[in-house]
Amino acid sequence: MDASILLKMVADVAPERVAVGPARSGLTYAGLLSRAEALAGGLSGLGVDHVALVDVNSALVPQLFYGASLAGLPFVPLNYRLADDALRAALARIAPAVVVVGEEQRDRCAGIDGVTALTASQLPAGGLERVGPGDVSALLFTSGTSGEPKAAVLRPAHLTSYVLSTVDLLSAGADEALLVSVPPYHIAGISSLLTSVFAGRRILLLPSFDPAAWVELAHAEAVTHAMVVPTMLGRILDVLEAEGRTLPALRHLSYGGGRMPLPVVERALRLLPHVDLVNAYGLTETSSTIAVLGPQEHREALASGDPAVRARLGSVGRPLPSVELQIRDENGRTLPAGEPGEIHVRGGQVSGEYLTHTATDAEGWFPTRDRGWLDAAGYLFLDGRADDVIVRGGENLSPGEIEDALLAHPAVADAIVFGAPDVEWGEVPVAAVVLRLPAEEAELRDFVRARLRSAKTPARVLVRDALPHTDTGKPLRRVLRAELLASLS
Amino acid sequence: MSMKPGIRLWSKVSSVSVVVVRPAAGEVTLTCGGVPMIEHEPQNAAATAEGEGPLLGKRYTDEDSGLQVMCTRGGAGELAADGRPLQMMNPRPLPASD
């Protein structure tokens, strides 16, 4: 079974409920299904293998996703912020394909062999003949923080397994509305669509993230649910604080997709005391969430005098009941609580398959390349990407810890730490920072040394005007490392 | 009886319809109210099934064969695989995370 069957069930039971858009004028579940069926008919007549999208979010995205699903074709949302050559190379790879483009993206996607670029209004409609699920539901390019982006293959069973094991049919109240502000090519863009549709929760799509627009839409549409990545949350809180707004309708805010600084969580709890906070951890390759820290766990951690319970505010919670999770060392040995290693997961929603290869082992375990550890109660703490670990004289250093120390300095607005080759130590930590106040390199190094210790003190601190991040806020350490190496050679 | 994932089956004796989520490991006969389910929607399903049937949106499983189905239309008549009553899978609701 594939995702379109889930939509059909909801359309069957609650056809008049609004699925996408404003409460008064949005598209109903019956409407969404009929639009998707018309699109599927047109798409299946094009003789293509993939349905790509290069555009910002809009009400077209759900229609196109389910349309592709009904036509048995993989949906391939691509990052419209990619440089022209990378975007064209990705499109060439999935030919024969149709790519649905926004007006501004049209020329960039034209003239590629086997790829037809069409705007939304040019999409053909037709009667649907082909029935039955395709082999692949979606191809999603990973964010590529620790290497070139890889095309993750998500099959119908992965996505439906995720939905069925985490959501009950039509479990959302009639007033519930979710504000989606991640881009359509992010796994949370896909998973939020699937889970919201099955739960019967109305979706509002922000074309692209802007904190003021987010607050405005949340207010105007009485948004009750939202999912944000860490950088978005900080900027939303800035707007709420500056404008003195509290978003009374909002009751559920989930965050994930990167390392969330503890001060931001505490600020959110303070500025939005009526809101349930959920921290979610997941990967593109795992069809989204594999661990959650729920609202009650947030409150208990914040109120607790027990340091171990209090520390859980910095965790990503416990694995989903439908997912198995282990921490392993570099020899594949399963580690006990408290010991950091690489996170491995297994479950119906876990794909671990790419266009080029499969990363799961014979028993179905997927090595995430994320480092982490479990506490005695089973709470998962993240410790950065395995590829980002800096090995200094045989000792493993986590860049995140050093970044946190630098960010505690009042002059530091942003910091990324990465490993650089060193004759004596093999590798040493180097920091790149953006300053909001003047500060000397020696002062920043002393500041870190006083908080951590000398092995964790950056060998150099480079001052930059801006630091490279993915557009969902993940640090691009490999870019800084490559720049430094180029400057040395 | 074809048991590919995604195949929809209909009851001949009530309004019940299910979708196969996971096929059985071997050949099994899925029944509703004791009558084998069919692969096409009946023109006029009899309303002769008695007893509590599956609930809309819930998943049911047969541990022996591994068969798992989801109810897409509720109604009367217990589901069974080769005579073994299917068990409702207990949902474990999680906070919305995406």
UniProtKB/TrEMBL annotation, chain A:
GO terms for molecular function: medium-chain fatty acid-CoA ligase activity. Residues 11-355 form the AMP-dependent synthetase/ligase domain. InterPro entries: AMP-bd_C (IPR025110), AMP-bd_C_sf (IPR045851), AMP-binding_CS (IPR020845), AMP-dep_synth/lig_dom (IPR000873), ANL_N_sf (IPR042099). GO terms for biological process: fatty acid metabolic process. Residues 401-474 form the AMP-binding enzyme C-terminal domain. Pfam families: AMP-binding (PF00501), AMP-binding_C (PF13193). Keywords: Ligase. It comes from the Bacteria. PANTHER family: 2-SUCCINYLBENZOATE--COA LIGASE, CHLOROPLASTIC_PEROXISOMAL, ACYL-COA SYNTHETASE. This is Acyl-CoA synthetase (AMP-forming)/AMP-acid ligase II. It comes from Thermomonospora echinospora.
UniProtKB/TrEMBL annotation, chain B:
It comes from the Bacteria. This is Uncharacterized protein. The lineage of its organism: Bacteria, Bacillati, Actinomycetota, Actinomycetes, Streptosporangiales. Residues 78-98 are annotated as: Disordered.
